[in-house]
Amino acid sequence: MAEVWLATDTSLSRQVAVKVLKSGLATDPVVAERFRREAITVARLSHPNIVAVHDTIDYEGRQAVVMQLVNGKSLRQLLDEQQQLSPELTMHIGACVASALDAAHKAGLVHRDVKPGNILITPDGRVLLADFGIAKGLGSTDDLTSENVMMGTAKYLSPEQVRGRKLDGRADLYALGLVLYECLAGRVPFLGESDADTALARLQREPTNLTQLRPTLPHGLSNLIHRLLARNPDDRPATGAELKADLTRIASGVDDPTTTITPPRGTSVNGRTSQERTPGGTVRPAGPAGPIIVASRADRTPTSGSPRGVPARHFQQRRTPTIVVMILLLVAVIVIALLWPNTRGSTSSNSVAPTSPELTTVTSLAAEPTAGPVGIAGITSFDPDDTEQGTENPAQVGLAIDGNTATAWSTNCYESQYFGGKSGVGLVVELTAPATGTVTVTMKNAPYQIEVFASSATSAPPSVESWGASLQPKSYATTPGTVTATITNEPARFVLILLREVGRDAVCSTARPYRGDISEIAVNATG
Q1: 373-526 in CATH: which number?
Q2: Where is this region: Disordered (predicted)?
């Protein structure tokens, strides 16, 4: 229907993508009008997970749309390369697309063509939904698509689309469920000899249970995807926001047995690539003393080849029950060693198993805490002026402590460099223990203005004012760089990196061009 070209916006000196309607279709008034309406539709949406529309062009009978340029690849390309994705990456993609769909549905739009080819992924892990070409207003009666034609891609149609029923946002959530199923299974659940057979298959049978295809998937994730694939829309999550919340809860591991996170290939156990996501959006990096035990079920399904083109946030898990066995054996050895003097040479009358009070001596073997290096225990986003959420892009916070300056946590896009009158947004870092030392922040874009605060409270202060005085005067720079603050007066448990001003970012729309990017936070402190 259209071709996409790389172009340069000479007015704003930035690269953009230009979607040009093919010449053979430009003379069709219905197609041309649908193309024009897509631009108007998307221009109404301002969301970090939706590809922004900057402008439209109608020149000498040719129509074009000027869009945000996304430097990355489509999920279709990623699946063609890897066939299957990890549960962690799948949940990240699902949460981002669910958030985008929620914004579209609240604006009264149904996408109707959610599929891997319309989901774009950047190298730093951002996920954007594209192509609202056949989107339809929820209350619209002026639809330029035929009532007798199924609009969409056969593999990713909802049952109500196949039946020609009235659609709402839950049709898009069904399609997203098909996408997530394919990410984990390596294939779509319904496939026939023709598009018609493929479309009808979802009305005739249930999808193969994901746990049969990948037995080690988190049960909560498998159950959620099968809920999304319910034929009755009432049995699916009601909104994109609900789906995102469910995915975030499952990603935190609160519903699944304890397993071990293993760092990706090429990263040492002591590295900071492996991260634990806890309820509430806090990311906890791997500690310095081996694998972290967290509440999430891992995936050990074999995949072919090494991952390619996976965003930096991707990490893999594997269960290691042998660790539990080793720990139990070690405890048994310690108990025997402690009890050996009492049992050696004893008579049968006093050689019975020790009672529980005697066994409690094992707990005294724990080492007393000593002064030493302090690391990062967790990180959360901070947006005190957002009364509903109190956070900003919580799914990205791990990118600020992943040891990779090429990735970054980003704020939302704003109309002004001062966040539309907010007191600021940023990140709260929790240390493993109260400590003094230095905190270094690396900014990926500019200009920027940063303040750094520290607190010795038992929990992070909820407002900027409650943090007290900043550690140093506001740091302002016109080029990307680093800011270092020193904690000296009192050992701190929490550190706030607060952005007061940010610069323009090419990924944002012209209506909301300002965004801050923190690429890395490093702590050099002692307790």
Answers
A1: 2.60.120.260
A2: 253-290
Contact 428, 382 (CB under 8 A): yes
Max intra-chain CA distance, the chain? 105
By percentage, how much of the chain surpasses pLDDT 70? 73
Please report, for the chain, the start and end positions of each structural domain, with discontinuous segments joined by +. 2-68, 73-137+150-252, 373-526
488 phi and psi angles, rounded to 5 deg: -125, -45
Whole-number Å distance between alpha carbons of 81 and 248:
26
**Catalytic sites, residue numbers:** 113
Q: What is the pLDDT of residues 493-526, one digit of tens each?
A: 999 999 999 999 888 888 889 999 999 999 999 9
Residue 296 sits at the vertex; the CA angle it makes with 91 and 98, to the nearest 5 degrees, is 20
CA distances from 133 to 33, 136, 329, 404, 455 (A): 11, 9, 62, 36, 50
Quickly tell me which residue has 């699944």 as its tokens: 256
Is-contact 448 442, C-beta < 8 A? no
**Stretch among 86-100, 251-265, 376-390, 398-412 having the lowest mean pLDDT:** 251-265
**pLDDT at 25 (0 to 100):** 75
Q: Which residues contact 338 (CB under 8 A, 6 or more apart)?
A: 361, 362
Residue 105 has pLDDT above 90, yes or no: yes
Nearest to 248 by CA among 291, 278, 210, 228: 278
- The answer, yes or no, to whether the previous bond of 123 is cis (omega within 30 of 0) is no
> DSSP letters of 215-236?
TTS-HHHHHHHHHHT-SSGGGS
List, in sequence order, every residue forming a beta bridge with 192; answer none if it has no partner.
none
Give me the sign of the Cα torsion angle 200, 97, 21, 309. Answer: negative
Residue 355 has pLDDT above 50, yes or no: no
73-137+150-252 classified as CATH 1.10.510.10:
yes
In percent, the amount of the chain with pLDDT more than 90 equals 44
CATH class for the domain made up of 2-68 = alpha beta
**In the prediction, which pLDDT does 135 show?**
56
Does the model's pTM come out above 0.70?
A: no
The more confidently predicted of residues 128 and 39 is 128
Structure tokens given for 93: 């993609």
- Is residue 98 within 8 Å of residue 111, measured between CB atoms? no
**Contact call for residues 181 and 225 (beta carbons, < 8 A):** yes
Query: Could you give the CA distance from residue 205 to residue 183 in angstroms, rounded to a whole number?
Result: 20
